[in-house]
């Protein structure tokens, strides 16, 4: 029994690590797509794309994943990719939005619907949950190794044109109008800040507590969506119990 328990614990940690790695790769893939879409798909002529590729390499992201994300933006291979958003409710009534990049909307819609169904959630119509989110620019700066007080960071963020800032033990989260995110990012980089995140995203207006008996299903939904190559991002309003993290 002890051997089985040890294997189970190790397997559990491995699954958690794999899920976390999958979410990191998913985010980098989206950043690669956006950088290539906004500029030249050739990194030699696109400084922002080179930065994201360096970040992908640092995260040990496979080359095929990097190439696939850039190909989606550039139309390499003749495939035409579209951006599609799905909305629905996870177990416990938690609002979830799924952003996808796909060359086959029927395939992607079926896979997303299946993920919600498997987890005991439901896919809704367009507009069913999007009103619960605000579109904002988000810039994150890790506090580790940063010699800045919260007040000083706030002043620098406001000077750069940010709207608001939230500080946690691990990082500073700086919020901007979506149209100002790039200029605020550039201003902070000019001040030699190293940014962990700089993106336009969807922020939930409120968090919904996930019932303890729904945590496993909720996590399964997020993991299944994350594992889908077509899914570019997941915006969810769930708040997990502390002991489930």
From TrEMBL:
<keyword id="KW-0963">Cytoplasm</keyword>
<dbReference type="InterPro" id="IPR049083">
    <property type="entry name" value="TACO1_YebC_N"/>
</dbReference>
<feature type="domain" description="TACO1/YebC-like N-terminal">
    <location>
        <begin position="5"/>
        <end position="75"/>
    </location>
</feature>
<feature type="region of interest" description="Disordered">
    <location>
        <begin position="1"/>
        <end position="21"/>
    </location>
</feature>
<dbReference type="InterPro" id="IPR029072">
    <property type="entry name" value="YebC-like"/>
</dbReference>
<dbReference type="GO" id="GO:0005829">
    <property type="term" value="C:cytosol"/>
</dbReference>
<dbReference type="InterPro" id="IPR026564">
    <property type="entry name" value="Transcrip_reg_TACO1-like_dom3"/>
</dbReference>
<dbReference type="GO" id="GO:0003677">
    <property type="term" value="F:DNA binding"/>
</dbReference>
<dbReference type="Pfam" id="PF01709">
    <property type="entry name" value="Transcrip_reg"/>
</dbReference>
<dbReference type="InterPro" id="IPR002876">
    <property type="entry name" value="Transcrip_reg_TACO1-like"/>
</dbReference>
<comment type="similarity">
    <text>Belongs to the TACO1 family.</text>
</comment>
<feature type="domain" description="TACO1/YebC-like second and third">
    <location>
        <begin position="81"/>
        <end position="236"/>
    </location>
</feature>
<dbReference type="Pfam" id="PF20772">
    <property type="entry name" value="TACO1_YebC_N"/>
</dbReference>
<keyword id="KW-0804">Transcription</keyword>
<dbReference type="InterPro" id="IPR017856">
    <property type="entry name" value="Integrase-like_N"/>
</dbReference>
<keyword id="KW-0805">Transcription regulation</keyword>
<protein>
    <recommendedName>
        <fullName>Probable transcriptional regulatory protein H5R63_02370</fullName>
    </recommendedName>
</protein>
<dbReference type="GO" id="GO:0006355">
    <property type="term" value="P:regulation of DNA-templated transcription"/>
</dbReference>
<dbReference type="InterPro" id="IPR048300">
    <property type="entry name" value="TACO1_YebC-like_2nd/3rd_dom"/>
</dbReference>
<keyword id="KW-0238">DNA-binding</keyword>
């Amino acid at each position: 029994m002890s051997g089985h328990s040890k294997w189970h614990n190790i397997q559990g940690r491995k699954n958690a690590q794999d899920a976390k790695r999958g979410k990191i790769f998913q985010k980098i893939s989206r950043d690669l797509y956006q950088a290539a879409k906004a500029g030249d798909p050739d990194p030699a002529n696109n400084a922002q794309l080179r930065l994201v590729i360096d970040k992908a390499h640092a995260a040990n992201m496979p080359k095929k994943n990097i190439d696939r994300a850039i190909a989606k933006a550039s139309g390499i291979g003749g495939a035409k990719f579209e951006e599609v958003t799905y909305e629905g409710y996870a177990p416990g009534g938690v609002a979830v939005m799924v952003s996808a990049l796909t060359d086959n909307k029927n395939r992607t819609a079926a896979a997303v619907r299946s993920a919600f169904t498997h987890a005991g959630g439901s896919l809704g119509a367009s507009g069913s949950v999007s009103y619960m989110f605000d579109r904002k620019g988000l810039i994150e700066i890790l506090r580790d190794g940063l010699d800045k007080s919260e007040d000083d960071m706030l002043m620098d963020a406001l000077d750069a044109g940010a709207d608001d800032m939230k500080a946690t033990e691990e990082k500073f989260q700086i919020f901007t109008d979506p149209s100002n995110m790039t200029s605020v990012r550039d201003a902070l980089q000019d001040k030699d800040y190293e940014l962990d995140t700089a993106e336009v995203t969807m922020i939930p207006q409120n968090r919904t507590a996930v019932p303890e008996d729904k945590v496993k299903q909720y996590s399964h939904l997020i993991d299944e969506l994350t594992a889908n190559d077509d899914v570019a991002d997941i915006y969810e309003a769930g708040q997990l119990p502390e002991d489930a993290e």
